[in-house]
Amino acid sequence: MARSAVCVVDMLNSYGHPDAERLRASAEKALPRIARLVERAADADVLTVYVNDNFGAWTSNRDDFVRELLAGEHARLVEPIAPRSDALFVFKTRHSIFYGTPLEELLRQEGVDRVVLAGQVTEQCILYSALDAYIRHFDVAVAADATAAIHDDLADAALKMMDVNMSAEIASAEEVSLA
After folding, report:
1. Can you say whether residue 63 is alpha, beta or left, with left for phi > 0 and alpha for psi between -120 and 50 degrees?
2. Mean pLDDT of all residues in the chain?
3. Any residues with CB less than 8 A from the CB of 148 and at least 6 apart, and which?
4. The sheet that has 114-120: what strands, in order across it?
5. Cross-strand bridge partners of residue 165
6. 119-170 confidence digits (pLDDT tens)
7. What does the pLDDT look like over 85-95, one tens digit per residue?
8. pLDDT confidence of 102, banded at 50, 70, 90?
9. Are 174 and 32 in contact (CB under 8 A)?
10. Cα–Cα distance list, 81 to 2, 56, 110, 152, 163 (Å)
11. Lesser CB count within 10 Å: N end or C end of the chain?
12. 169 phi and psi angles, rounded to 5 deg
């Protein structure tokens, strides 16, 4: 039987980068659905892993990183999905959640063979993570309304690419299968 993991991608963000204003607006819409997806996963005993860019903060750890963001200007975008102290958390430094991270090993040890992606940015980190999951022989699902984009047209194209080229399940956060 397949075992899924929900991967929350790059939602812990200070929004102090180019295109942040557009991304913030999209993230605000996706945030309640991401929070609900994390809640659904917890209720169904489905593994949730937060994978987040470290923004070059090489001496940071998860607790300090989250604490800084919760004290920052955009804390309202972090608080609803801030990982609990016992949540699995992986820092990444590139677009893909797999590139240069221990995520694949973590998922394999947990018996996971399917990833459900949510977070930001649909046309960048979500797309590249889906491709890397696919080439590592994980089944891929994307909670499309629980992703945030900078460019809606590119996000739509990315979702179509994941559907067509990776046979990804593209569904809403409420309807995406967690099995």
Report:
1. alpha
2. 96
3. 23, 26, 27, 29, 30, 119, 120, 121, 122
4. 88-92, 47-53, 4-9, 114-120, 139-148, 169-171
5. none
6. 999 999 999 999 999 999 999 999 999 999 999 999 999 999 999 999 999 9
7. 889 999 999 99
8. very high
9. no
10. 26, 22, 22, 23, 26
11. N
12. -80, 120
Per-residue pLDDT at 1 exceeds 70: no
DSSP codes of every residue in 48-100? EEEEEE-TT-TT--HHHHHHHHHTSTTGGGTGGGPPPTTSEEEEESSSSSSTT
Report the run of H or E that residue 47 belongs to, with start and end: strand 47-53
Q: Where are the domains of the chain?
A: 4-171
Global model pTM greater than 0.90: yes
Q: How far is CA 127 from CA 64, 82, 101, 134, in A?
A: 28, 23, 17, 11
| Token pair for 92 | 């990444």
Q: Do the Cβ atoms of 118 and 80 come closer than 8 Å?
A: no
Which residue's structure tokens are 């942040």? 20
> Could you give phi then psi for residue 29, rounded to 5 degrees?
-70, -40
